Structures are given as C-alpha cells and as structure tokens.
Predict the 3D structure of the following.
Amino acid sequence: MSYDPVSLLTRLIATPSSSRDEAATAGIVAEALECEGVTVNTFYNNVWAVQPHFDPARPTLMLNSHHDTVKPSPAYSRDPYEPLRCDGRIYGLGSNDAGASVVTLIDVFLRNYRHTLPFNLLLAITAEEEVMGERGMRAFLPHLKEMGIEPAMALVGEPTGMQPAVGERGLVVLDCTARGVAGHAARREGVNALYKAIDDIGRLRNMTFPHRSALLGPIGVEVTMINAGRQHNVIPDECHFVVDVRTTDVYTNEQTVEIIRQTIESEAVPRSTRVRASVLSEDNPMVRAAVELGGTPFVSPTTSDMALMYDIPSLKMGPGESSRSHTADEYVLESEIADAVKKYDMFINRIIL
C-alpha cells in the first residue's frame, strides 16, 4: 500500500473546503482512494466506498468523518491553507477537525479493504458537517438506503484524543415571541411584551424536567438573545428572544419543545428538531472494543453527524483534541496520526458482534 495519511492531509489543508463548497477536497479524497484500487462512489460532495466482497446479508460498519471546514478565524497568524510541519505538528485549517480523522479512517479502510471481517466496511467521507447541511449526512443516509445499504453501526471520526465518546446531547434552538399591546410609555398604557418575556425567561431559568438522562444528565435550557422595542417612549408590543436547548435521550426533541411550550406563555417555534441526542450503552460491541484498548467512555460536549444518524448506534473517536477545533493556528500532532492508524486498526479487529 503506497497510501500516506500525512501527505493526503497536507493536500486537504492546502485546498479550501468551507461547508457547501467542498467539491475540490471531495475530488482529492476520491483520487486518493482510486489510486489504491478502490471503486469510489460520490453523491453531491460525499465520497464513499465499500469492500469488493460486500455482503448484504452481513451487518455494515460505517467509517465516517467529514472533509468540510469552518471558515478560518481572522486571528490566524499564518496562512490557514498553507500546511506547515514543524516540531512534530501539522498546522493548517481542518488539520485537527477533522482532516486527521479523515486520513486515518481512510488508512484503516484500505488496510482492511480485502479482508473478511464479521461485518462489511463502508467508508463515508462526507460534506457539510459543520453546518449540518442539506447535502451532507442528511442526504447521504437516504441515498445509501436507496442503494440497498443500511449501516448497523458507525464509527465517527472527530478529535477526541482517541477516547470513545458514547453520547452527545441534541440541540433545539427556539425563536420565542412574547406579545403585548403598544401604548405611550408616559401614560403607562398598553401591555409591555418585554415584561412578559422577562417572566418567561425567569421560568426557563428555573426550569427542571421530570426525568433526567442516566448518561447525558439534565436537559440544558439557556436564553441567549433578546430584542424588543422600537422607540424609547413606546411600550413594546413584541419581544423576541432565543433559547438554546440541549436535549437528551429521555425525551424526543418534539416532546422537549412541547414541555417548554407548556411552561411559558410566549410563542416558541423550533428552527429544527433534527439534531437529536445520541447514546450508546456500555455493552455495545464498539464500546467494549474501545474499552479493551484502554479507552474511557465519556459524553462529548460538542455535536457531530452522530446527531443525524438516529437509528444507527454510533461511537465518536478520533485523533486530535476538541479544544483545538475552530481555533486560529489549528494543528494536529504527527504522533496523534500515527497512534490513530494503529488504534483504529486494532479497534476494528476487536469488534465482536
């Protein structure tokens, strides 16, 4: 095998791939796989492949990471698209999130491409993860189903220090509107929508839900934005505020929204309910394999495409550190890439169904 993960990573860093504009890096990933004799499929900017002896009768493990990036921070002290290898580090936008996971998952797929395992391997290097876009995982999974492929489990490559993230909270953003009646402030006429909103915000601040997730803990509710009024002497008839809700596996997102609606008087409209909580039990084969390799299961504070995999048991694990993601002068250690190559291969071969 001539494949070199570091060489591919530097090519990816050097190629801008902001979410919804990843065609160039999709081409680079496809070319790298084709050079190793892999039959490559593409769907939008998602690149995927299966083993040549793929058997629909066996379960399928999806190896997934994303090749899109956020836009570079203005605080970069160097060109974010110029890969730099220095003192054991590889600097560049997307090096840590999630280029290192992309190139090491490709490595383990190639190493096992012609091996017969207890399950099929599906490699999926997908797009638009940073924005959970309509042409990323949201479109890719239905496309797989149309192709007759339904993953039974997924390994999601994200920077976790190669520790197994067995859970993620979901996310619902609520646009809320308190309604009043306009009037002259000097005459104290009307109904002040701002005061109504403040009352509801107090309710949300002290809100608890009847049930708590054993793994993910309580649902988090935070008011993050507020806006009201058009003029200093007019009682506002509307007040708008935004609520960030971190959901768990105890309630569906829709149930969570309904409980909040019953708690406040303001109108509450979710922007989306598709970003769902993800939880793996300790007896899941992927969790057992990760623990055997010395991993310590934890709950990830960040969201990923795991949130869109709904009925697919998924584990998040990859090289790099989450704290470096979306930061200026992002980097990954070359030693982290080498370690991930070894651990991913051992992980794959330790999964017992």
In short: Residues 1 and 36 are 7 Å apart (CA to CA). The mean pLDDT is 97.
